[in-house]
Design a protein that fits this description.
Porin, single chain, 183 residues, elongated
Length: 183
């Protein structure tokens, strides 16, 4: 299913209660932040991959919370295929408003990047390459911030990059606006 049109498994346009086909479009920028990963702390090699815990922090540089701090923890899983799974509760605090987001998504290595055996990542001295990995995911938000209550029922799309070697993060989150639905 694409973000522009929803389709049923049969390939026909999906509908809600017999309404017009549902469509979604990216709306307002909820935030764009530039930040850094904290130390990737490995918990060990599990059957599904290496589990890490790491913190991250940055500054919101665009959107209604510009100038604010964003921070959180990522319970990160790096799978044998080189894809990382993100589970990252985060908080935005601009000194006036606070927003909690529950981010789920993926970190995808650059095309053609070699995927080392996971055991190699646990070896002393291993360093991730200085390369941008794609971050893609979604989030749900929770806030009591006046004027931002609409985020409590908004799906958020998260896109950006993370450089696992340098720790640099550049991520933008957009509200998804459903269109074409009738009650």
């Amino acid at each position: 299913m694409s973000i522009d049109t929803a389709t049923a498994p049969s390939g026909t346009a999906a509908t809600a209660s017999g309404a017009h086909p549902a469509r979604a479009a990216l709306g307002e920028v909820v935030y764009r932040f530039e930040g850094r990963l904290g130390e990737l702390y490995p918990l060990g090699l599990f059957a599904e991959g290496i589990r890490f815990h790491n913190t991250f922090e940055g500054r919101v540089v665009d959107g209604p919370f510009a100038g604010g701090r964003i921070f959180g923890i990522d319970k990160f899983l790096l799978r044998p295929d080189g894809i990382g799974e993100i589970v990252a509760p985060e908080v935005i605090d601009d000194g006036v408003h606070r927003v909690e987001l529950d981010v789920r998504g993926y970190v995808i290595p650059p095309a053609g990047a070699p995927v080392p055996p996971l055991e190699a990542l646990l070896e002393p001295g291993f360093e991730f390459p200085d390369a941008d990995f794609r971050v893609t995911g979604s989030a749900v938000a929770r806030t009591v911030a006046a004027g931002h209550e609409h985020l409590n029922c908004t799906t958020v799309v998260v896109e950006g990059t993370v450089n696992m070697g340098t720790g640099a993060l550049d991520v933008t989150a957009y509200a998804v606006r459903p269109t074409g639905l009738r009650a």
